[in-house]
TrEMBL record:
Family from the record: Belongs to the type-I restriction system S methylase family.
Membrane-spanning ranges: none
One Pfam family matching this protein: Methylase_S
Residue stretches making up the Type I restriction modification DNA specificity domain: 86-171, 213-399
Cross-referenced CDD domains: RMtype1_S_EcoJA65PI-TRD1-CR1_like
Keywords, comma-separated and alphabetical: DNA-binding, Restriction system
Protein name as annotated: Type I restriction modification DNA specificity domain-containing protein
């Protein structure tokens, strides 16, 4: 196996959208992915935009040192697209020598990003010169070995993708049940029939300005939960990824799944820092909500994060009364819950969800028996979701292990 310079394996491509035949516009993320572009292109001359085709790469060499990553991605999901002319587009010269997918695996390694940061120049932001990028080296095993490596990695990647799809369907099932019972009021009555459509008694509620089942309460969130903020890290303290100390939950760690579990991406605080912020921790089954940045993300804390530290950019909802975590979570992520959160968010560019506004979120309180029935019904779904999330965490660790081994390959 020999080491080759990147520049020996690739060539720049500069194809422009002169006839405006390509209309699919993509952007490049720091996570090395292409995404549909959200840029305002009204009045923009798209003739100068670059065309990128399947199995071609695009990258950004700007701000590499600041971001500690070099955005580079391989187009796989589309046959052709266009992107900003600011991005260099390149392709592999000879796919019998190096597979585009193998090269992308090398670009995915954290070690590649560290080397790119080392070579980046130009002050705080630090841009990477194209020549320095081309002079970076990587091992090139036989094409058969490359195919084997890519197949192993993609098998794990596909399993992760399938697991995420299963989680999404499970989440949707639980949310649909929440809507059927607590929005449409078609929960099972004493005879097991849908309450509202079977003639269940409804009464008008002034606060919500709609009819609700007789006997249900209406209040604000502060009446049924303790709402507490997280804690900013003390000055000069630093997070570590060495699993030294205790986990520190950031907004970046929140996800679209119901449960938040520990994973390899978590940062930790040392024991000295922990003593200063020890009162700002979460307990199993606490519900947390993001209040700064991406506002309105909601997670339930898994037991693997019991007593983890919480960022000041989140609130925790704890010590629930007359409600349970399942009902509260599904309310907060429901269409109405997210609309209420949006309406109670204040500020412009630096928008924030203040505690007093969270406290005033309207909450409909069903009967205790119905809440217990809902909790019991979604219990199996919860268990399955947590199992899948933890499996995906292990699979993600396996991906990292496969990437770390690329530099030690033979053949």
């Amino acid at each position: 196996m020999s080491y080759r310079k990147i520049g020996e394996l690739i060539r720049l491509v500069d194809e422009r959208n002169k006839d405006l035949q390509v209309v699919t516009l993509v952007g490049l993320t720091i996570h090395k992915k292409f995404i549909p572009s959200v840029a305002n292109t009204i009045g923009t001359d798209m003739k100068n935009y670059k065309i990128i085709r399947r199995n071609q790469f695009a990258c950004s060499t700007m701000q590499v040192r600041r971001d500690k990553k070099m955005p580079v991605a391989l187009l796989k999901e589309l046959d052709v697209a266009i992107l900003s002319p600011a991005y260099p587009v390149f392709e592999v010269k000879d796919e019998n020598e190096v597979l585009p997918d193998y090269l992308m695996l090398w670009f995915t390694r954290s070690e590649f990003d560290r080397e790119a940061c080392f070579h980046a120049v130009g002050g705080v932001r630090g841009s990477l010169e194209w020549e320095d990028f081309c002079n970076m080296e990587l091992p090139i095993p036989s094409i058969e070995k490359q195919r084997e490596i890519v197949a192993q990695y993609q098998a794990v990647e596909n399993k992760i993708r399938v697991n995420k799809q299963i989680c999404e369907k499970l989440e949707a099932t639980a949310q649909a049940l929440y809507k059927h019972w607590f929005v449409d009021f078609e929960f099972p009555n004493e005879d097991g029939k849908p309450y509202k459509s079977s003639g269940g008694k409804m009464v008008w509620n002034e606060e919500l300005e709609k009819e609700i089942p007789e006997g249900w309460e209406v209040g604000t969130l502060k009446d049924y939960a303790n709402i507490k903020g997280g804690k900013r890290l003390p000055k000069d303290s630093e997070l570590n990824k060495n699993k030294v100390g205790r986990p520190y939950i950031r907004v970046a760690d929140m996800n679209k799944n119901k449960f938040m579990t520990i994973n390899s991406e978590f940062m930790f605080v040392d024991d000295i820092t922990q003593k200063e912020i020890s009162r700002y921790t979460v307990d199993t089954n606490d519900v947390i909500i993001s209040i700064v940045g991406t506002i309105g993300l909601v997670n339930v804390i898994d037991e693997s994060l019991n007593k983890a530290n919480l960022t000041e950019n989140c609130f925790k909802l704890t010590n629930l009364k007359k409600i349970n975590k399942d009902y509260l979570y599904h309310y907060l992520v429901s269409e109405r819950g997210q609309r209420e959160i949006e309406m109670k968010t204040v500020g412009g560019v630096q928008a924030k969800l203040p505690m007093y506004n969270v406290e005033l979120l309207d909450l409909l309180i069903p009967s205790t028996n119905l809440l217990s029935q809902f909790e019991s019904t979604v219990k199996a779904i919860n268990q399955r979701i947590v199992t899948i999330i933890k499996e995906n965490d292990k699979l993600t660790e396996l991906q990292s292990l496969l990437l770390s081994r690329l530099a030690r390959l033979e053949g």
